[in-house]
Design goal:
Chain A: GO terms for molecular function: calmodulin binding; potassium:proton antiporter activity; sodium:proton antiporter activity. Chain A: Belongs to the monovalent cation:proton antiporter 1 (CPA1) transporter (TC 2.A.36) family. Chain A: It catalyses: Na(+)(in) + H(+)(out) = Na(+)(out) + H(+)(in); Li(+)(out) + H(+)(in) = Li(+)(in) + H(+)(out); Li(+)(in) + Na(+)(out) = Li(+)(out) + Na(+)(in). The complex is a heterodimer of chains A (about 800) and B (about 220). Chain A has helices at about 1-10, 10-15, 20-35, 40, 45-65, 75-100, 105-110, 110-130, 140-155, 160-165, 165-195, 210-220, 225-235, 235-265, 270-305, 315-330, 335-355, 355-390, 395-420, 430-440, 445-450, 460-490, 500-520, 525-545, 555-575, 590-595, 600-610, 615-645, 650-675, 685-695, 700-710, 715-720, 730-735, 740-760, 780-790. Chain A is mainly alpha-helical and about 800 residues long. The longest helix of chain A has about 35 residues, at about 270-305. Chain B has about 220 residues and is mainly alpha-helical. Chain B has 2 domains: about 10-100 and about 200-220, Recoverin, domain 1; about 100-200, Orthogonal Bundle (Recoverin, domain 1), CATH 1.10.238. Chain B contains 11 helices and 4 strands, in the order H-H-E-H-H-E-H-H-E-H-H-E-H-H-H. In chain B, helix 4 (about 60-65) packs across helix 6 and helix 7 (about 135-145) crosses helix 8. Chain B starts with a helix and ends in a 6-residue tail after the last helix. The chains are: A mainly alpha (about 800), B mainly alpha (about 220). The interface between A and B is large, with 77 and 80 residues.
Chain lengths: ~800, ~220
């Protein structure tokens, strides 16, 4: 590095050379490089420093040649850019952190407003310090770095179902609404500028095209601002998707209008042909964007098919492909936003089926992190840019702009809703219209577009920028702050927070098929019919290509069920074992409901069965105990390392939990079922059941387990042979794979959870060797014994109603 | 022709009042009904069975069954009939009407109940007022019947999990000896609260007559 530096500052080097001996040369080069790094930067004001430093060095150099090697030196310029970026990010994150520490503040004012204020203050401080404010909201930087994460986050987690159901409405708002806004604002603005010849300013010089350009910039609803505000007001899904979808899809319109008017402003004339070309251009921009996004999305899905051996880089594919989609679209001036949305929405279902659960979590967190930092930065930068920019405040222009924006939005929404409601089945009410109109927030995209305007072509650029900033501030501050109370006041339906239950999923599917069926009977091919067609096509061809292995054939309902199970298993593991059973499926309550049924079942069994000799019982108990101890040791290691630190997670552990849970559930249900179907269960039948089980032939459970093993895992062997009671292949299979300790331990943890709960409930359980030696221990002796003896660890087929007490 | 036209108009008027469909919708549906029945007065299960588009529907059997279920006719009868007339056909269809802007909240609530009752009846095959685990399993099995062996086996587990969920959400505190017999209508309402049936369970009934142009009972 030093040599590099030295060669980069030839001036200083050359100057000192004649005065130094050849021997000192190397040392001096080293010195120069490290002490005088500023010379390397080559900026005009630092060159002065270099010279001063050099002369000082020369002066002392003659007296004491042996200046000590600089242990510590300062080289700020070397790291300046990344350092400042990190500083900004840190500032943004700390601000975000800070707001949420003050509970009352974040309740009243939306975060976006506060961030803008912070930006204003920071910008003011920089100005006060006399420094040059960095061009933070540089359009290049904004469009290439800050915007994509937010849009990708929105696209990847786009609620596809409501989006598709309301696509028509969204498109009408996004396309026709934005066009209307642009032309209404631009046209009227031009008119206002013209009818004021007495105006001292140069407003009447303004021509129509710049006005329209300005109108198109300022008319687009901004996804960033909408997201920031709407996430806080928790409005119902329909309104959210309408406003947010509009803000995403109007990008194509904005892009086209922007380029169109910019072009025309240079030329100065518009022909009919230009208009036609403009419309074609719009279609190309929108469809091209979607197409580019979809291609990359499919590529990403296809790639993720093969990542099962390199799980670590899975999330990267999602990000990189999406970014490529964005950049590719931007390259052709297509709508990058639409490309990103399409890419995210297309790849998600397939990618999620392919990647591991941890990768999924990683993707989720990375996206959320990036988007929230980007968002924070955008708002802060908006504040900074406001302080920084040269402003040309024109009262007329600014007020007229703000008023026109509001009026155009209201008229647009009401008019379009009137039209749309003729076709919609679920009509939009007046309240809905109000929220849609009021939620039309403008944001940083408009500012950046305004920033891109060239001063030579638009002499009034400063005035435009000022007006844009005013509109942004007005919408974000006034509307953003009042929308929450208004939503409360109007009692607009809020989003239900409840998570999706399995019953709802079943009935969603059921309803889909039902409605398709009814449509078919009516003989009219509506939405449901086509959706069904598309689904079937997807299942038949697309999924097979894009999803690896078994999961491509998995119906949606089963996939959902697995996901649910998964989530519960993880919740269970994270809750630290057993105090609480997973919430949704076998909730605490229902467990109580089901489990107590066992004692009356089990007791007669115990009595009915012959008891073991005491010695044998002791033996069993010892084995059980040692088993349990081993379990615990493994548990500890699992907690410390594997779950937290192991990035090479293979999904195997997950699968095993899943299976395990299924098996246990199966058993519980079996018990429950006894009750459900045979309400007043005669003591015999369950007893018989138990007895058969106890006598070493658990035929009752075997088929079920085998089935489960077959259906769910990719490695059915794990549970296949398990019913052969004395060899426990589940464990062996596990050991063969590299993930074995992990998975086994997770199972242990899981089982232990179940056991602990049973201990808490403490109602005459079947096996309680230490406390009640007489009746319990021998119940399942022969089989248990053999099983335990051959077991290296807890096997998969131990029933959860056998508590191993230490 | 003219006489029969006025007669059917009069009939349709009567049906409009009863089912809430508009006159055009009823005319469209009537056309379809005649197509399906082969210009007969009544329609049979086989007629519906022959609709080609239904062939791929996993719950085809239940859908057709619902048409012939007397419980869906707003009369206090139970059981199923072999053939239904146009009026009954319309009555079943009327469960799938969308709410309008003018629908009041009470009407919406009634509508929701009605739609849910329709679903409930589809599940509750033996009409004992509860959906037992057996019945629920059957539903899920049917739902997954198109996905082969995996579906059949997973169906049971899913139905069981769903049943547990219902039991745990609706009867939080059961005595140890209690058992959950099945989903009653109240519980059914409860668990599907989040789905907003009133605004989801509907299809678009055409006002204009396009059925004959676009599709209809395909002759092939």
């Amino acid at each position: 590095m030093t040599s590099r530096r030295g060669s980069h500052s030839p001036a200083g080097f050359g100057k000192s050379l004649p005065e130094r001996g050849l021997l000192l040369l190397v040392l001096l080069v080293l010195l120069e490089g490290s002490v005088l790094p500023l010379g390397a930067a080559g900026s005009p004001d630092t060159s002065h420093h270099t010279k001063a430093g050099n002369s000082a060095g020369n002066g002392t150099g003659n007296v004491t040649h042996k200046k000590a090697f600089p242990v510590l030196s300062l080289d700020y310029h070397h790291i300046q850019t990344p350092f400042e970026i990190s500083l900004w990010v840190l500032l943004a994150s700390l601000m975000k952190l800070g707001f949420h520490l003050i509970p009352r503040l974040s309740g009243i004012v939306p975060e976006s407003c506060l961030l803008i204020v912070v930006g204003l203050m920071v910008g003011g401080l920089i100005k006060l310090a006399g420094e040059e404010v960095p061009p933070v909201l540089d359009s290049q930087f904004f469009f290439l770095c800050l915007l994509p994460p937010i849009i990708l986050d929105a696209g990847y987690f786009l609620p596809i179902r409501p989006f598709m159901e309301n696509l028509g409405t969204i498109l009408i708002f996004a396309v026709i609404g934005t066009l209307w806004n642009a032309f209404f604002i631009g046209g009227l603005l031009y008119a206002v500028c013209q009818i004021q010849p007495a105006n001292p300013s140069n407003l009447h010089q303004l021509e129509l095209l710049p006005c329209l350009l300005f109108g198109s910039i300022v008319s687009a609803v901004d996804p960033v601002a909408v997201l920031a505000v709407f996430e806080e007001i928790h409005i119902n899904e329909l309104l959210h998707i309408l406003v947010f979808g509009e803000s995403l899809l109007n990008d194509a319109v904005t892009v086209v209008l922007y380029h169109l008017f910019e072009e025309f402003s240079e030329v100065g004339t518009v022909t009919v042909l230009d208009c036609v070309l403009g419309i074609i251009s719009f279609l190309v921009v929108a469809c091209g964007g979607v197409l580019v996004g979809a291609i990359y999305g499919i590529l990403a899905a296809f790639t993720s098919r093969f990542t099962s051996h390199t799980r670590v880089i899975e999330p990267l594919f999602v990000f990189v492909y999406s970014y490529m989609a964005y950049l590719s679209a931007e390259m052709f001036h297509l709508s990058g936003i639409m490309a990103l949305i399409a890419c995210g929405a297309v790849m998600r279902p397939y990618v999620e089926a392919n990647i591991s659960h941890k990768s999924h979590t990683t993707i989720k967190y990375f996206l959320k992190m990036w988007s929230s930092v980007s968002e924070t930065l955008i708002f802060i930068f908006l504040g900074v840019a406001t302080v920084d920019g040269k402003h040309d405040w024109n009262w007329t222009f600014v007020t007229v702009t703000v008023i026109l924006c509001l009026v155009a939005r209201v008229i647009g929404v009401v008019g379009l809703t009137y039209m749309i409601n003729k076709f919609r089945i679920v009509k939009l009410t007046t309240k809905d219209q109000f929220i849609i109109a009021y939620g039309g927030l403008r944001g940083a995209i408009a500012f950046s577009l305004g920033f891109l305007l060239k001063k030579e072509l638009f002499p009034l650029r400063e005035m435009f920028l000022t007006a844009i900033i005013t509109v942004i501030f007005f919408t974000v501050f006034v509307q953003g702050m009042t929308i929450k109370p208004l939503v409360e006041l109007l009692a607009v339906k809020k989003k239900q927070e409840a998570k999706r239950s399995i019953n709802e999923e079943i009935h969603t599917q059921f309803l889909d098929h039902l409605l398709t069926g009814i449509e078919d009977i009516c003989g009219h091919y509506g939405h449901h019919h086509w959706k069904d067609k598309l689904n079937r096509f997807n299942k038949k061809y697309v999924k097979k290509c894009l999803i690896a292995g078994e999961r491509s054939k998995e119906p949606q309902l089963i996939a959902f069920y697995h996901k649910l199970e998964m989530k519960q298993a993880i919740e269970l593991v994270e809750s630290g074992g057993g105090v609480k059973m997973p919430s949704a499926m076998p909730s605490t309550v229902s467990m109580q409901n089901i489990q107590p049924k066992k004692p009356p079942l089990a007791k007669p069994v115990e009595r009915a069965l012959p008891q073991l000799p005491k010695g044998r019982e002791e033996e069993i108990r010892k084995i059980l105990r040692s088993n349990l101890q081993r379990t615990r040791q493994r548990l500890r290691s699992y907690n410390r390392h594997t779950l937290v630190a192991d990035p090479y997670e293979d999904g195997l552990g997950d699968l095993l939990i899943k299976k395990q849970k299924m098996i246990e559930l199966e058993k519980k249900i079996k018990d429950m079922n006894n009750y459900l179907t045979v309400p007043a269960a005669p003591p015999d039948s369950p007893t018989m059941c138990r007895a058969r089980l106890a006598s070493g032939k658990d035929t009752d459970f075997k088929p079920a387990q085998q089935q489960k093993g077959n259906t769910i895992g990719p490695d059915p062997q794990a549970y296949h042979t398990k019913s052969v009671s004395d060899s426990v292949p589940a464990i062996q299979v596990d050991l063969a794979s590299p993930q074995s300790p992990d998975s086994v331990n997770m199972m242990d943890e899981f089982r232990r959870a179940g056991q602990q709960q049973q201990q808490q409930e403490d109602q005459g359980l079947t096996m309680r060797p230490p406390s009640r030696p007489g009746e319990a221990g021998g119940a399942r002796d022969p089989q248990k014994l053999t099983r335990c003896l051959s077991d290296p660890g807890p096997s998969a087929d131990e029933e959860e109603d056998e508590p191993f007490l230490p | 022709m003219g006489a029969s036209q006025t007669r059917s108009d009069h009939e349709h008027q009567h049906l409009t009042d009863k089912t809430g469909f508009s006159l055009e919708q009823i005319k469209n549906l009537h056309k379809r009904f005649q197509q399906l029945s082969g210009n007969e007065e009544t329609i049979s299960k086989e007629d519906l069975d022959r609709i080609p588009a239904l062939a791929n529907n996993p719950i085809k059997k239940q859908i057709i069954g619902a048409f012939f279920d007397k419980r869906n006719q707003h009369q206090d009868e139970v059981g199923s009939c072999d053939e239904i007339g146009f009026e009954q056909f319309l009555m079943v269809m009327s469960h799938f009407r969308p709410p309008t802007l003018k629908t009041t909240d009470e009407e919406k609530e009634a509508m929701r109940k009605e739609k849910l009752r329709f679903l409930f009846n589809m599940h509750d095959t033996d009409n004992d007022g509860t959906i037992t685990l057996e019945e629920y399993r059957k539903v899920v099995e049917e739902l997954l019947s198109k996905s082969g062996a995996i579906g059949q086996e997973a169906a049971k587990a899913i139905a069981d999990a769903a049943m547990l969920e219902v039991a745990s959400t609706n009867v939080p505190h059961m005595a140890p000896d209690d058992f959950y017999e099945g989903i009653t209508f109240e519980h059914f309402e409860q668990i599907l609260k989040g789905l907003e049936m009133e605004s989801r369970m509907h299809i678009r009934f055409l006002d204009v007559d396009t059925t004959t142009m676009r599709c209809g009972k395909s002759t092939s």
